[in-house]
Every structure is written in C-alpha cells, then in structure tokens.
Amino acid sequence: MINKTSILFFILFISSSASFSQTVYSSIKNYNVYYASAKRNNTDWFSIRKFEDSGKTYLLLVDPDELETHVEDASLYSLNPMPMSQARLYYQKSTYEKALRKAEQKSKSIQDAGIQSGMPKETGISLTADLCPSGRPLDRRIFTDILQQFQKVEQPVPIALSITGIWMRQHQQDLAWLKEMQAKNQIYITWINHSYNHRVSKTAPLKENFLLEPGTDINYEVLETEKAMLKNGLLPSVFFRFPGLVSDHQLIYKVTDFGLIPIGSDAWLAKGQQPQSGSIVLIHGNGNEPVGVNDFINLLKSKTKSITKKQWLLYDLRESIENEFEGTN
C-alpha cells in the first residue's frame, strides 16, 4: 500500500513517467476501445484501448489496484479479450471496479455526479485544475505557488489537470511549460480527460448543456481527447471529468462503459465550497476563474505551518481514491 507521506513513491513514479513524456505517438491509427486482461511477468493489467503507431500495436493499460496507467507494445502481453461487463466481474474486488461502482451510484444528480472526495481520514486534499478552452493563458500562479509551499516537504507535488483537446491545440507553449515542470520532477501531473470540445451555452438549461447538448458525439469527445494527449506526449489517466460537472444517469454509464471513472468535486472554490480533509478540490487553471485560484492560494497560505510539519499535504488523485476503498469488499 502507498505511504501517503513518502517522497520516494513520487520520485519513483515520476521517473517511470519521465520517459513517457518524451514519447510522442504522432501517427496514431485505429484508436479503439479494447478490453482485455493483459498479463506479463505474473502481473495482470487491464487493457482499455488499442491503437497502431509507426507499424506497431500498443495498449493503454490500467493497474486495477493502484489506478496507474501506461502504454506498451501489445506483443509483450498475453491478452484475454472480454466485454466490459465480464471485465467488471473479473476485477470486481479491485479499486478500479469499486470506483466505477461508486461513480455510478452518484449518477442521478445533473451536476457534480461521480466521485467527489477520497480518503477522509487523511489531512489534506487532492487538487484538480480544469483546462477548459480559453483565450487566456495558463494561470501559472497555481503551479509556482504550490511548488513554493511544498518543495521542501513533498516533491514532485501531485496535481490532476482536466484537459480538453481544444486547450491542447491552442496552448502549446503553456503545455510545454507544464511538461517541463514535470520533467524536472517539480510536479507530477495526472491528466484527466475533460472532453475534446467542451461546448457550453449561456442560455440552454443544464439538461441540454455541455455534453448533454443534443447531437454530441461522446465517442469523439472521449477518444479524440485521449489521442490528442498521446500525440502531445501526455499519459491519459483512467479518470474523466464532465465539463461544467454536468451529466445525467445515461451519460455517466456511457463514460464508465469507456472504462473511465467520473471525477466530481466537493470543493469548487470559486463557488464558495470549503474543502475538508480528503476533498477533491476544483479550480480552473485556464485563466477564466481567478477568484478560485486566489481562494486556493489563500488556502495554501493559511496552511503554511501545517504544510511545513507535513500535517497538511497534497495527495495524488489515484492514491486518494485507492485508499478510500482500502479494506472494503
């Protein structure tokens, strides 16, 4: 089990991901959902995607217990393809299946469905920042401030970024800056799928807005974002965040059928929601919500002494969710 305060864990994890950050899959073909048990050296990973690049076939794999993902040559694995329904029975005792189930249980609310918090016994939060389409540059204060506060007690500092395809396309310099911070072991980023287009209407009701807009192609919104991540040298995680945190029962199940875990928030700072121990905090890093960023910076300042004593930390989103289900059936 992961040691919450272990800097070694983050150093080992980031070193294993640094090489991936240099891998750009520039000629992806036949990118598809592909579910299979993938075994290698007595380790059982779960394949959720298969694609071709430069004449080779690759798999996007998930560790069912620790929710880590990685991409590898499919020829290295012994594969047992199965439908998602069978896979969920096969992995029913895993963190992955428990998280999918919990997200589906919270599917009836039209806003902020999915997993909203994790590991309530721990003192600290999991920070998520959304990168929705925006004409403004990345709000770099988020990253410079967390680095300043945590560099002596927790490095690389974990943060989860919900990224859209359009933001990647329009903000290449900001994306390169984030990748450089990760390559230097200053931060560790979990990349969350936030849809490709993130369409929004100022006038439409929520039930017809964001991904609930009539005519939305959910296959494109999910899979094209993952392809864009891979083409930019980013590692897709097993998480998905709904634009505007808006969804319905049917849409939640469509996303879990892609093998992705919907992530909400119990502390959207710009809306005045206050974080508690174990909260999944939401701010926007795309420059459109300075109020939420200011609130987060003020929160960090208020926790300075606790941070210095390692009594209030930032937690990796995977770690947070994994430990929430520790010891459960």
Considering the chains and any ligands shown, give keywords for the structure.
disordered N terminus; 8-stranded parallel β-sheet; 329 residues; globular; alpha/beta; 11 helices; single chain; 5-stranded antiparallel β-sheet; 13 strands
Task: Kindly summarize this structure in a few lines.
With 329 residues, the chain is of the alpha/beta class.
Task: Explain what you see.
- The protein has helices at residues 7-21, 84-90, 95-105, 141-150, 165-170, 172-183, 218-231, 249-256, 290-302, 304-308, 317-324, and strands spanning 28-40, 43-53, 56-62, 69-73, 78-81, 124-131, 157-163, 187-193, 236-240, 261-262, 267-268, 280-284, 313-314.
- By secondary structure, it is α/β, with parallel strands linked by helices.
- Helix 4 packs parallel to helix 9.
- It is globular, with a radius of gyration of 19 Å.
- The two termini are 16 Å apart.
- Residues 1-21 have low confidence and may be disordered.
Topology:
Layout: H1 7-21, E1 28-40, E2 43-53, E3 56-62, E4 69-73, E5 78-81, H2 84-90, H3 95-105, E6 124-131, H4 141-150, E7 157-163, H5 165-170, H6 172-183, E8 187-193, H7 218-231, E9 236-240, H8 249-256, E10 261-262, E11 267-268, E12 280-284, H9 290-302, H10 304-308, E13 313-314, H11 317-324
Parallel strand pairs: 6-7, 6-12, 6-13, 7-8, 8-9, 9-10, 11-12
Antiparallel strand pairs: 1-2, 1-5, 2-3, 3-4
